[in-house]
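Margin note: ligand = adenosine-5'-diphosphate.
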Amino acid sequence: MIEFLKKLFGQSGSSATAKERLRLVLMTDHLELAPELIEAMKRDLVDVISRHVEVDRDKIEVNFERQDSALAMLANIPILSVNRPNPSLTLVPVPEPVASVQPPVAANGAPPNAAPPRVRKRRKRTSKKAAGTNAAPASATPASAAAN
Amino acid sequence: MSARKIVLTSGKGGVGKTTTTANLGATLAKRGQRVILIDADIGLRNLDLVLGLEKRIVFDLVEVAEGRCQLRQALIKDKRFESLSILPAAQTREKEAITAAQFSAIVELAAEQADYVLIDCPAGIETGFRNAVAGASEAIVVTTPEVSAIRDADRVVGKIADEGKPIRLIVNRLRPEMVRSGDMLSVEDVCEVLAIELLGVVPDDEEVIDTTNRGEPIVLNESNRLAAIYDKIARRLEGEIVPFTNFDGQSFFGRLIDALKAG
Ligand SMILES: Nc1ncnc2c1ncn2[C@@H]1O[C@H](COP(=O)(O)OP(=O)(O)O)[C@@H](O)[C@H]1O
Ligand SMILES: [Mg+2]
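Resulting structure:
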């Protein structure tokens, strides 16, 4: 009966797997073929983060990792200082004072101005339905991920 | 009026570019169009063989490019179809034997004396592909409903789209019964993944091998079901709106009947 229902609703067999694998592999292909897109994303990401902390632009790494059903964008952005370097350069006014930008530093337990902590920001790019990027919780760091 | 210059391409080899070029070309010719088929697969020529014209080759594409002969001397007229001729590729040369500019010039020349110039593109995305695409003003991407063929098709779609040329899709070798049982990607799936307009769907048919063995395009046999299918594709290419029949097995009732049959 289950076989019958599967046949009826066209869900048996490997075609669903094929489609899902293709969707992911094509997304990866397209990203690999569009280095300028990745550069643009990097730039935008850094611009946003730089409003709050000073980052080491030259050491930013952006990678893509295939997960079960989605492609994840992993950005490794070294932070040099939590004191905003030059507020006058910030085009968009920042409503919150710098002091409120605690989480990335606190999460790593590193005191400000010590060796630059590295924030591992995990962003998920899912299908069209979930357009836009959702920053995953801080548990995406390797250490806490192992606890899940 | 100058001809439509259409390249048939796929990225992956063996998905049916040559078979499609031969049969679509023959169908257009049956419909009264003047058609010239150009085999761009230098070093691995096959179009002549599929059409059973291999014994009549005197000159080839590269010799035309090098000015050793006129285009009309190299064209082989297919006597079974009034207005169909082919320009064979060179067999003992390499893809680099011709430049994109030379190839485009030959396509232009052919276009002056035809309504349709169909270019049978080699597999791959290197020189041979680039030349074939350079000569065309539109493209038909041929794929089978398999992951590797579709991934390669996606790659050529990207490259051709970069040049701003319109692209349409032919899904070849579909097996409706496998789609129904969920073991093969459906036409809808393929279209969704590749996101290009569908031109036609050709089922897998053993007779293709049989007719190719004999050097007869399958559309020569009017009673073959593929003749009707290629005719629809040709009409869509000519601009007619021809609805897609549902032999790709996506209808609920089709599945219901199948599921009942299978018990
Ligand atoms: N619709 C089809 N049904 C069955 N066999 C097919 C079909 N289309 C192509 N073939 C077979 O697939 C093989 C490859 O086709 P071909 O046209 O030479 O591909 P390509 O030019 O893309 O390399 C050939 O053996 C051909 O007979
Ligand atoms: Mg071929």
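The CA atoms of residues 176 and 248 of chain B lie 5 Å apart.
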